Amino acid sequence: MAAAAAAAAVGGPQPPQAEMPAPGLALDKAATAAHLKAALSRPDNRAGAEELQALLERVLSAERPLAAAADGEEAAAAGGGGGPGAAEEEALEWCKCLLAGGGGYDEFCAAVRAYDPAALCGLVWTANFVAYRCRTCGISPCMSLCAECFHQGDHTGHDFNMFRSQAGGACDCGDSNVMRESGFCKRHQIKSSSNIPCVPKDLLMMSEFVLPRFIFCLIQYLREGYNEPAADVPSEKDLNKVLQLLEPQISFLEDLTKMGGAMRSVLTQVLTNQQSYKDLTSGLGENAYARKSHEKYLIALKSSGLTYPEDKLVYGIQEPSAGTSTLAVQGFAGATGTLGQLDSSDEEDQDGSQGLGKRKRVKLSSNTKDQSIMDVLKHKSFLEELLFWTIKYEFPQKMVTFLLNMLPDQEYKVAFTKTFVQHYAFIMKTLKKSHESDTMSNRIVHISVQLFSNEELARQVTEECQLLDIMVTVLLYMMESCLIKSELQDEENSLHVVVNCGEALLKNNTYWPLVSDFINILSHQSVAKRFLEDHGLLVTWMNFVSFFQGMNLNKRELNEHVEFESQTYYAAFAAELEACAQPMWGLLSHCKIRETQEYTRNVVRYCLEALQDWFDAINFVDEPAPNQVTFHLPLHRYYAMFLSKAVKCQELDLDSVLPDQEMLMKLMIHPLQIQASLAEIHSNMWVRNGLQIKGQAMTYVQSHFCNSMIDPDIYLLQVCASRLDPDYFISSVFERFKVVDLLTMASQHQNTVLDAEHERSMLEGALTFLVILLSLRLHLGMSDDEILRAEMVAQLCMNDRTHSSLLDLIPENPNPKSGIIPGSYSFESVLSAVADFKAPVFEPGGSMQQGMYTPKAEVWDHEFDPVMVILRTVYRRDVQSAMDRYTAFLKQSGKFPGNPWPPYKKRTPLHPSYKGLMRLLHCKTLHIVLFTLLYKILMDHQNLSEHVLCMVLYLIELGLENSAEEESDEEASVGGPERCHDSWFPGSNLVLNMRHFINYVRVRVPETAPEVKRDSPASTSSDSLGSLQSSRRPKVLQRENSGTAQVFSLVAERRKKFQEIINRSSSEANQVVRPKTSNKWSAPGSAPQLTTAILEIKESILSLLIKLHHKLSGKQNSYYPPWLDDIEILIQPEIPKYSHGDGITAVERILLKAALQSRMNKRIIEEICRKVTPPVPPKKITAAEKKTLDKEERRQKARERQQKLLAEFASRQKSFMETAMDVDSPESDIPMEITTAEPQVSEAVYDCVICGQSGPSSEDRPTGLVVLLQASSVLGQCRDNVEPKKLPITEEEQIYPWDTCAAVHDVRLSLLQRYFKDSSCLLAVSIGWEGGVYVQTCGHTLHIDCHKSYMESLRNDQVLQGFSVDKGEFTCPLCRQFANSVLPCYPGSNVENNLWQRPSNKSIQDLIKEVEELQGRPGAFPSETNLSKEMESVMKDIKNTTQKKYRDYSKTPGSPDNDFLFMYSVARTNLELELIHRGGNLCSGGASTAGKRSCLNQLFHVLALHMRLYSIDSEYNPWRKLTQLLEEMNSQLGNEEQQSEVPILYHDVTSLLLIQILMMPQPLRKDHFTCIVKVLFTLLYTQGLVALSVKCSEEDRSAWKHTGALKKNTCDAEKSYEVLLSFVVRELSKGKLYHEEGTQECATISPVAWSPESTEKYLQDFCLPFLRITSLLQHHLFGEDLPSCQEEEEFSVLSSCLGLLPTFYQTEHPFISASCLDWPVPAFDIISQWCFEINSFTERHAEQGKALLLQESRWKLPHLLQLPENYNTIFQYYHRKTCSVCTKVPKDPAVCLVCGTFVCLKGLCCKQQSYCECVLHSQNCGAGTGIFLLINASVIIIIRGHRFCLWGSVYLDAHGEEDRDLRRGKPLYICKERYKVLEQQWISHTFDHINKRWGPHYNGL
Fold first, then answer.
1. Is 1607 helix (H, G, I), strand (E, B) or coil?
2. pTM of the full predicted structure?
3. Pairwise pLDDT comparison (1007 vs 1319), residue with the higher score
């Protein structure tokens, strides 16, 4: 760029000679720059500085109307000409020149880079970039590394993963605040700053002068371009225009940042220098433009609501300002930037419609903070104003990248962080208004995560800039804009406001950047401590949390189904989790030790205050409003979690942080309401609210939410239960669950609040809840490892799980920044302790399995915990699944044969603080409930289930396990007052109460009930437990009588307790409300009258249990106390016998425990067993028993019948599977009827799978085989080497397709077509290596007319199938295999056994004549029968299966020769493919599975029928050339011009075979077939000899010539290869075939000397492919089995099987292939005739002549490309690779696994004629079948024709799982078995049958 001379003249340093002097202007620039630099270097540089300033003024003036340039071309001319942006480019050129100080800009960049102390990487990336995260090296969980630093560091064995960046990020390599130094890469391992030389002063001198002006110019452009969006019209268009025009400037800055540390520090100086900012932007001075620009800036500030009437204190502008006052400074500038009453004016307009925003503005405590907040938006430096505009323009990506690129500069980092915090409120407002809030959120987080992850920085900003105040206030303010009045509880008078979940702010998660920042800074201990110490902040925060308390209220719909199902619940759950729970977990992670008790006390205190305010605001007394529920109680949960932490980690005394009884009663109501509502929802009582309410119930317990929702709720209820009166608590539970009325001894009752159909499930719900409440220990004393283990066991018991789904299902600490890592050591160790790994298995036709973990046997035995499973299941079916698996385990291990009940699991001991919880088990209310339920179950009352009984027994057992230790055996005398409380039970201890007999009970029943008729003994009294009416207590009944049960009502009891407490806390106010709540429960008037009846009971819990045992076992006196036989039992009671079993076992276990606990109980049990107790009401129970016994018998019989049916069905199914499906059953299985017609059967019989009739196929009602026709290029992929090609993973590796079978055949055909007559060429080869048609069948047959009606029905069926009926596709009606055509079966016997296979004794000459005659007969097309029509249509289908380019090879389009070639090639393709399916040889022999279901026979008939239509002119029939000596040999050579026919030695022998056979009338005779084979073998053998002679060297040839000539006259000369070879050499020497070769060529062809052995082997290998195909053909046409053999004897076995070997052949001496020859005419004559043709051709074209003779006949099996071991190697190379077609990096790159081509999946860039690239490639590479590996997803996708499917992945992680879309980003390794399966499906063409999920791709892949 620079001109040396000019620079020298000015006296600057001599720059290197420039490449070429630029035009004048550039010359000036360089010269000027050099001159200025020199001027500035002088000690007195004022003049230079002024000169530079003037120049910059001129060059960098932003006055050129940028906006005008954007508006149109005309204006652009004014702006300095040269189109828009020309002036800007000019300015940039000047800047570059000036920075370089006259030197070349590139050299300048290089010079600056040399001074880069690059200790940090700091590479900034945007969304979708692939980065790495290593948890082993990370200090902060947000740590990330770019791929380069990751691969250059050493992370072997670390816990790392690759991820796609969502919002963008920056590389942390080298930053020891964020990651450990051991993980740094080689480049960034700390360089000591000493060895970086000091930056020379003059290098960056110019930069210091130029950059401030440049940045100011940029700011002016930004000011200029910004126009306030008018009336909310989104103005993104304008903003984007401005940004586009500024692109070069911002890019220039970005490039500067990349020059390294030296330039960054200059930029930092410029950006943060307050003086230069003041000088440049004050807006004073003469420059009108500058003044205008400044005004625009102020307008922008004002419109952002950031400052009020311009204030002279803030801006030093001496303008008259209307109504200035200090208020502006204090109130607005102060509170505005960050704090509470941010201008609510514009907010109010938005909320005007609801008018709710105004009602509750929260008064913030913080506006008294120190005055520094006043200067908030007085911008003091370029950096501050740049950030301001960055926000205004909604974070343009380029600006963000520039600002982040600067972060490695420490000074800048601090300044920028402070600026960011200062603008925080402004960011929030812009975000709220933004229309692109998603993009903007990502960009904000991109910046903030870099700033706030650094603890040191966060602490500094917290201290210096009130970061916490700002954040909390901004969040609070943000939520204030969408508050509505809460309708919970008291709708009219509620003062509580909650967020409205329907607002965009919540629905679109707009708040997440701010919340995420908040969580991020709370993860730093120093910051969190400040937060927990600051009472004002805690108050504000609780205020914020209370906005979410009770949001998204659900009201139960009782009449209509709700019209519109709102989906707001997603927003509500997300908001509670992100905005409330995650910060809570962040805070909890710092309250782990004793010293932090104070923090907990603070939180608990303000939490309780907020709760109290909440209860007051919603007017809550003691009854929750019916039929409404909210799942969101974050205040309750904060309280619960801090309590739990306090007891578990901080050794706080629980009672010191608990409120009074009344508050506890209030606290328990709402969580309990949620538990009851869960049961209601599962009982379908909320069904009219739509599906979303089920969704809420599931989300509440789902793994990501449960430990922030249901767990704290249950824990809080446990705390309340442990401190409240147990009778009160239990009765509250049953009342909440609405089952109080059900708990009566009477057989009928009325429930005033519940429909009968819901009673049972609600009762189950209530009991299950009690069981969970009493047995869950998650927060009551389990250690973290025990919890992890319990969670894991519960998940594994439901289902086997993959490693990743386990990680996902186990509730982790939901705050990702809390530093608890899911993949941590304990997870893996616990997993290996409880589960076994099941490696992935591969059923050949099955789905791809993943590696799974399954519970160990001992886990089922001792750790299976049904309670935990119930708590953690999202779907109820998972509980059943766990029980089924448990049952299966017990059956398998022989522990229990029947249907077991959920086992009772011992619990971890309770933490002493919660001992009170166990009082629930020892309160009379519960005992009465248990007694009543046991009685009802025994009496078979309705609405009770096994589940109820199970839970009742569970509760009894829990009570026995947790009984008070000091229980004395003798009944303690209970004081009087206690006794008269009621006469159900004497005390509250379960062990005592179990033996207490209850004689009579008085119940209230409807008059219609059976009990009323019975006269009761007058002396007794009692009560219904549940009947609510009895709150009117009849006084008469209060007689003291230990034997009868007193009146007792749950509800009345609860009322009384509550009243006592209320009175005690003397809040009279509440008394007023009392009447209102109690009459809610009075029964509706419509109910029938209730009357009182007295029941005689005379039972105790123990006696009920024993009777229950009898009932369950169905036998009288089935229970016999076990200790009477074995006293030991009482001493060591832990007997495995009782740990698994059903109800009977449970009852025995309980009775044993009861006996153990007290001698008295033991005695009573023995007594009860002695009185053989008659059943209680004799009539009833006997009837019931009789019924159950009858039922049992009937059931037993039904079961036996069913077993028989099932067995029969199974055997049928098995036989069907064996015949129909591809089950590799042993060879001895009977194959399908098609190929096994017994010799005596005259005609083949077919079954139609549609109409079920069997019969022969006839001309007018033909039967057909269900077939699938598909084009295939598998054969074309064979190569001649065994090793498969590798997938290229570097630029050097490439795959060239020229050595594939298809390419070789293509070359051969085009070579022939160059020199020979077209029609003759088309008979000399086969096509179909690419795009050949493969026909396969499932073996089922159907009538063709039935098939047509079946297709019709499919067409009318509207169900979306995975196939297209219009294209003729269907699935076989029997086995559902995919098919697309029907191949007609030729009438007549299937295999012409009897007639045709008798060997005839005709000589070969006669047979040859017969063959010729038969071929000569023209094939008359059969008359128009149905059969012939079908044959024609199937032929059409076959043609249409492949593309035109794979059918037409003739030079004259549409010539019949083409069809002829195509037809016999179809036969060839199918034979070759079958050979490949058999492994490439016929050693295994036998009718392989493919043989069973082969349709070749039928296919041959169809092809032959059509081929006979094209009779070959007998002149050209190759048969004559093979079998006759032609006289006029020389006449052919007469005319050189005329293209001759292809010499017979160039013909492909297998093709000839197929032509000869298909030209014969069908059915073919066996001896004709053998004759044709014999003749063709002579040609083949000669071809082998010729090829051999060409391959070997001159010496070899002369040697052979010599030896062979000696033996020529021996008797079997014609069968000696030596003689024949020498003859061939002699004949061919006459032509030029051997002449042309140079010496070097013979060396390349044959380095080895040919021994007789190697020659023999060569000839055998040359002939084998032909023999294999011929044997297969014979096998199909004549049904002969293939013999099996060793590989080395394959040739001899096949040749004798084909009848080539004479029968008298002795096998002793070594086998010689020539002995198979049977020459139809003298060998030497015919050979010389054949060689003559060759010679006449090589006269002219020796090279080509030789090439055509050397044909490769030994192709190896086709393979897919070999893939590397580790997926990362593929990913790193391909995901950044550019596409060769469009030269872009594709969004979805894919690579073809057949040929290695790199393609753009779905890329519109590479679309051709509406076909996307993958579809196009699948047609070109695989004739419609493509196998692609999707690079970004690690998944393989299959394209088959117009459909595609996801196949799965062949790369699995260490746990045997796929990682689709690389979501987890763990290292993946090749799974060889899977790849084998894929390859197998490709070769066997079974993609369509095995993969089930197909869909149309509409050419869009």
1. helix
2. 0.81
3. 1319
